[in-house]
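Entry:
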Amino acid sequence: MEPDILELESFLPYRLYRLADTVSREFSKIYKDRHGLTRPEWRTLSGLGERGTMTATELGEQSAMHKTKVSRAVAELERRRWLTRMPDENDRRVEHLALTKAGLAAYREMVPLAKAFERELLGRLSEDERAAIVTGVTALERELAEKIW
């Protein structure tokens, strides 16, 4: 008896991964052309721009990046003088990361570009399709956050 075959092209997790990767690659052209940033560097910059001060662990959790990617992104943004590290007063193993004025300026320059990209992407869909995507993604996020594997 032949085992069942999984058709990846119709398998929802695969389709979501491919879609997310495609959208991310398209958006990456903007920040790569503008500032020469990699995806992990952009995620680090945007996480700190949105939340202010964070630890590398918090950045990894917020951006779903492995700690080595976070570490490399932090090192590069620090090399550019876009980020500073401040030791924790109670635990010297922990560093609090924050954007410098130059890093914050780069982030603020990118915010309207990111919003325009999102508007243009969603503008390709009908109002009903946009609502369905928001509702569906929100429902999946809620369900998976509650699910204990």
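DSSP finds six helices and three strands in the chain.
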